[in-house]
Structures are given as C-alpha cells and as structure tokens.
Amino acid sequence: MSVVVENISKSFITKNDTINTLSNINVEFHKGEFVCILGPSGCGKSTLLNIIAGLEKETSGRVICNGKEVKGAGPDRVVMFQEPALFPWLKVIDNVEFGMKLAGISKDERREKAMKYLKMVHLTRFQNCYIHELSGGMRQRVALARSLTLDSDILLMDEPFAALDSQTKNILQLELQQIWLETKKNIIFVTHNVEEAVLLADRVIVMSANPGAIKKEFHIQLARPRQPDNIDLAYLAADIMKELKEEVEKVAKAEFDTNWTSKKDLVLPDSDSDMGTGI
Amino acid sequence: MFYLILIAIWELAYKIGVDWLRLWKPYIFPSPIAVFTTLWSLIIDGTMSIAVFASAKRIFLGYMLSIIIGIFVGLAIVRFKYLDENVSPLILGLQTLPSICWLPFSILWYGLNESAIIFVITIGSTFAVSIAIESGMKNINPLFVRAAKTMGAKGFNLYWNVIIPASLPSIISGLKQGWSFAWRALMAGEMISATKGLGQVLMVGRDLADISQVMAIMIVIVILGVAVDKLIFGRMEINIRQKWGLDKA
After folding, report:
1. How do residues A49-105 score in pLDDT, each as one tens digit?
2. What topology is assigned to A3-76+152-255 in CATH?
3. Residue of A102, A130, A132 lying closest to B153 (CB–CB)
4. Could you please report the per-residue DSSP string of B115-156?
C-alpha cells in the first residue's frame, strides 16, 4: 500500500521551445506517512501532485499506486485543492456525502459517516447551510471532511491552506495534524511554506526548479502532536530554508530583470508572502 | 403609478391629435378607453379565452419540443468535438435567421395547420436553447470537474451530478431566451396561418380596421409574455441565485 513515482518527466511544448517542468522524479510514499513536497513557485510541485492524482498526463515514466499503474483520477487518491471546490448547488452535508453517493453507499450509512467527519472538523452545526454562507476556513474544512469520507488510504493536498488568513491557517494545520493522527492516511501535501511543512510532515521533500527535480529529503523526527512555537521546529525550518533559499533565488533570477542580483538586492528567506507565518 | 401616467399621456395625445387637431383618423390611433372596452368585450364574449387557450397549447407543444431537441443537440455538441467544430457555426448561423423565415417552408411541408406553427416555434427557439446549453457547460468552473473526478465521477455521473447542476444558471437564462423566441415565432405564425389564437384575432382586428382590437391583443401578448418570463423563469432564477449566493453584495 504505497505510491511509487518512477522516472516521471513532464514537458510542455510551447510555440518556441519545450519547457521541462519535471525531470526524472523518483520517489516513494509509504503507507500512513505524511510527506510534504516543498519548493519555490513554478518548480512543478503541483504538477507532480496532479500527475499522482491522475489529473494530468506525464510525458514519460509512471506512477504506481498500490501495485497498479495510475491511468486516471480515482477515488483512491482524493485531492484537496487550494480552492475548496465545493458545489454551490448542494448543502454542506450533501457536499460531504457527494463522493459516497457516487460510490453507491446507502443513504443511512453515508449520512452517518458524513456526520462523523463533519464532527471531526467541528461543523455539524452548519450541515444544512449552503456553501456561500460559510467563511473561507469553514469551506476548506468541509472540503477536508469530504475528502476523508471516501476512506482512501492516500490523500493529496495541493496547498490547501495557502488562500487562508494566517490565524485560520494555524488552526487548520493543527486540526489536520490531529486528523492525521486519528486516521493515519498517507498524506502528500504540497506547500511553499517551510514552517507548515516542518510542523506537519514526517518527511519533507525539497524540490529544485527548472527543471523540477528532487533536491533533498529531510526526515522530521519530532514528537507529535507538534506545536508551531516549538524551538526544534524553528531550528529544522532554518535548515530547510537554507536549501530552499537557493532555489527561490534561482527562480527569482529567471523571472526578474537581468540587473537583479541576490547579493545587491537582499532576498529575505521569507520572500514568499506566506513564509514566516505560524511561528 | 408609472403606467397610469403613461396611459394619461396616451389619452392626452389622443385628445389632441384626433379630437382637436384632427391630425389622425380614429382608426389609426386608438384611444385607451376604446382599447379597454374592446379588451373587456373580447374577454366577455369568450374570444379571448379561446384565443389564449389555442395559443397556449401551441406554444406549450412547440416550446417543449424545442427544449427536448435543444438539450440533445447541446449535449451532443459538448460531448463530441467533431460536432462542436462543424455544427456550432451552422447553429449560430441558423440562430440569426428570424423564425418567420421558416414559415413558407413549414406551410409547404405541413399545410396551413397546427403542425406548421408548432414547427416554426420549435425551430425558432431550439437553437437558442442548444447554444445556451453548450456555452453553459463549456464555461463551468473546471475545478468542479477536477474535484468530482478525484472523487470517482465518470461519464454519465459526471454530467448528471456536476456538469448539469453547475451550468444550470446559464441553462435557465438560455431557456428564458428560448421562450421569448418561441413567443415571437408563435405570434408570427398565427398572424399568417391560423384560424384561431391571439395572432389571428390581431389580424382580424386589422382586417376590420379595428385599431383598438389590434392594440388590445398587443397588450395581452405583452402581458402574457412578461408573466411567463417573470413568474416561471424569474422564480427559477431567483431560487438558484439565492442557493448559490450570487445575490450577496
């Protein structure tokens, strides 16, 4: 029961040339493991996640999930996106039940299960609301409950908290940690926030950009539940930040004007807007 | 209130133009009072109810047909890329053709009868409906489809549970537009080739030089058109907008 990524490459062909987004990615995700994929924007980390999810097609290589090659999207690899992607025509409870309904689970059973997961994200009070009546954080919690109901062993998360304000984000991170401890799913979590990665993950995979490749892996062996103000976390985060900073600068160099240099123009480690929150 | 003022202005124009200055003949410019008395007498002697009933039956049949055909055509275009590339421009072209242009065709095919009018209604609104369905389904948020796919939605399930509900707001506005096309086609068809119905009563008014009957029927046509628009489609739209939270702010 694991996800194996074998030699995945992905390139886009534009009018003028071919862009290699990912080149020869080899990585393995184990059962019950919480892995964060960390990288500067544009390094292809979301693309990698989408390929694992089956939403995008790889140029070469293959993804093997539980012994079977991934051919398309499926309920064994539920994805949580940056946007909650809830359906505005359904009530909260029906949104949570959506996947189970597709799976053909009986009405009583799915109601019971939906309530269990809504309870887990503390939103039972709002079960009969429509989506527009909820705040951003609540919506993302509903989306989390919805993705948990399918009992998939693998949960893919594409910067799920990136669009939230920092307080809400902190709460949700701790809730996710708690839920992971309870359910022991294999979570693959894409983020560009170092503190978030260190707080949540067993293993942090740092990616480099242009072309996207795995740069380094860090094993985070700290006791759980972790608190964001833990001093060890900050120490580890600084370590990873050093690795990441190089990549951020590389991306910046490629995107900014040529007169920009990292020595002259100071690059703060938290040049990404979200970095540094949660400490 | 606004309409009372409008009617007052109309009466005033009648008084000045017809009674005092004698610029216009009474049979080319109706007075509001004459229009309302004619309207009343049409209602009393049953002409109106027969006409409205006949028209309603036709439009019901024609419009239902056009919705069914429109949905099939729209879905087929969304589903098959080949059709999309080749049929869409044709439909867009046919959509610009006023439905009355189909009347000679339909009279030759069906003769001067119900089927001819129903054909005109159907062809007048089918294209509007299918275009609305096509564009509505193409413009839904792709995230909905991605999310649904990762939860295991495929094929028919994906359409039924995600794509159709997601495109419902634009489908309803398409149906609304189809309705107004159908209504116009109905009147055009009835004026030319019917033995009963609102359009026919209107034409009788013209033949008898009874301008107030013409006017009275025109008012009824407008009121009925608006009533269906507001009461049926308006309600549906409000309902959906509230659910989706589109009315906030």
Report:
1. 999 988 888 888 888 888 888 888 888 888 999 888 899 989 999 999 998 888 888
2. Rossmann fold (3.40.50)
3. A102
4. HHHHHHHHHHHHHHHHHHHHHHHHTS-HHHHHHHHHTT--HH
